[in-house]
Amino acid sequence: MLGALSVGVLALIGLMAFTVIDNAWPSFSANGLSWFGSGGDVVTQFRAMQSGTPLPGHSLLYFRAWPLISGTLVTTVLAVAIAIVVSTLAAIFLTEFAPAPMRRVLEPVVRLLAGVPSVVYGLIGILALVPWINEHLISNARKHSVQYVVQLNGQDLMTATLILTVMILPIMIAITTNALASVPGSWREGSAALGVNRWRTIWRVSVRTARPAIVAGAVLATARALGEAIMLSMVSGGLPFAANPLDGLTFLFEPVQPLAATIVKEFAGQQGGAVPHTIYAISAVLLVSALLLSFASWAAKQPLKRYGIGA
Amino acid sequence: MASLALGERTSPPAIVHPPRERTTSWPLVDRACYGLCWATGIGLCLIAAAILLLMLVEGISDLRLNLLFESPLPSLNQSQAGGFFDPIVGTFIVTAIGTAIAAPVGVALATWLSEYGRPAWLARAVESGVEMIAGTPSIVLAIFGLLLFARGFFAFLSQSAADGNVTGQSFLVAGTMMSLLALPLVVAATRESLAQLPLRLRESSYALGKTRATTIRRVLLPAIRPGIASGVVLGMGRIIGDTAIITILLGSSLKNQPASGTPIIGTLRGFGSTLTSYVYNNSPAGEGNAPQKAYAAAFVLLMIVLALNALVVRLTRGVEPSAAALARRRRVFSRLSGLPWNR
Asked: B63-69+81-198+225-318: what fold?
């Protein structure tokens, strides 16, 4: 009976992949591979689908997701890149340098950051961080320089990335700390006995050994960042604009709209027509990426098993 | 040896700690990295303190006791828009449904994985299946739930629109999909505590002639009750904090709208809101745009989540994972060398 239940879990995943992709298919087949490409304005395309009048020269399901995909890519890559550095430093601090009282404070702090619901992060972002960035960091000259292309109002890439970084930090810190703590003491003692100082020992022995765990943590965090919908829909600007890294500093203040946030934004209950198929297509892309990422994190952890460290 | 025998030295030599390494002897780069480590640690504390302070100041200044016991009203004026009694009830219902499904299923899954796990390929597939569920974004779970429960077959779980289409949005549906969020946490906690149980518990039960099923039910599961409880509480925290599933699977209404007049079943099949969707709808991103209400509700939400967090810490206190790992390593060693370490 327990075995049947376990098979049920597999069946559920199969059913999920099948249902979502099956319902997404009309959107993919109508657009082909250029679904992932760029072309036209996403908002116009959604409005056309809602009203049921196709854009001239295109089918009703015409959709080009590049602005959304680029939004997801930019926010996720930036957040994970920052988080890798910060979480590694924090994990080293927790396992090696922090005096006992500091550690007693820091552990609940990490747990707190992990526990705050994403809607609360979003609320803090939109009510506290966005106005502050809008007033203090974006100069009027910068706003004027792009006012015919896009409005800069503080709901931007930078706010989204910063909050996203804080949200994915705890899981990465937890995984890295575990791995650092399970590095055999004799390995580090060997290095220390050769006269290598403490930091170099940590860097060359502990962190080097824990590298697979850091990668696995980063992959897990990527999955988390990819699927974050509510917080991003609140602070990222809600304008499907492909932020351009060539714009220099302005790039950081341009609005973005990632894939997951688009689902929240465009979803409007049970509705017929072409919009649901497009939404299902977006979730199919997210689902497939999440499945690939969970495989990648499994693969990334394999070297640790070879060292004989379970993490 | 000889000197000891002569009794020249009666007390053992005092333990001499080597002097702590000073960072002043380090190269500049290393010292900079050391400083960065401290900066990160303090920075994290500052971020957490800022979040807590902001929520405390903004939340308490807008929180009134009557907000907790009033239903939301459709009004643009913040002072008239009512309280969040319905969202609190909604959070409670969704959490109850999600936990009621996730706890037994999760414990059963973990038990099968740890204690039976045959055939091995199936166990590995199920293991990675649970991991995949954990990695799936909740917004995708929500979309899947909508596709699944809007079929006519599941019409009894939600309500039907006038044209006969099933909405696929109700407390029952949302709670069921929420259980998938809690499931991986329950499975992980249960498996971990099962792995930490000493082998002698199982062996002594078998020695008394008990079957495997009885051993699991009467010996193993009661022994890991705190572990299971901490997993369940962690799962509850995830359910309470999730917004994506609620916004898609619970309909977009602030008040709880029963599907029919039937007392309990009508509410369960109807639309509603939870604290998370209330915060979202009242933030500038939603339709309501009542920041004070949003802050107050977010404060209540944060307090609930923090209380659950503290509960997990209490439950897991006293469990020493390192001791269990040590025991396991010793077991392997004793099997290798034939030394009876454990008895």
From this structure: MetI-like fold (1.10.3720)
Q: A14-307: which CATH number, 1.10.10.60, 3.40.50.300, 3.30.300.350, 1.10.3720.10?
A: 1.10.3720.10
Closest of A81, A265, A10 to residue B247, by C-alpha: A265
- For residue B317, the model assigns a pLDDT of 74
Model confidence over A187-220: pLDDT tens digits?
A: 888 998 998 888 999 999 999 999 999 999 999 9
Tell me which chain A residue has its CA closest to the CA of residue B312: A111
Asked if A270 lies within 8 A of B168 by C-beta distance, the reply is yes
- Nearest-Cα residue of chain A relative to residue B146: A270
Length of chain A in terms of residues written? 311
Say if residue B119 is preceded by a cis peptide, omega within 30 of 0.
yes
- State the amino acid at position A286 in one-letter form: L
Residues 6+ apart with CB under 8 A from A278: A27, A46, A49, A61, A63, A266
For chain B, say whether A11 makes contact (Cβ under 8 Å).
no
A3–B contact, CB cutoff 8 A: yes
What is the complex's ipTM, to 2 decimals?
0.90
**Which stretches of chain B score pLDDT less than 70?**
1-10, 16-21, 74-81, 161-162, 164, 252, 318-343
Touching check for A153 and chain B: CB below 8 Å? no
CB contact under 8 A, B294 and A112: no
pLDDT digits (tens, 9 = 90+) for B13-68: 777 666 666 778 888 999 999 999 999 999 999 999 999 999 999 888 877 777 77
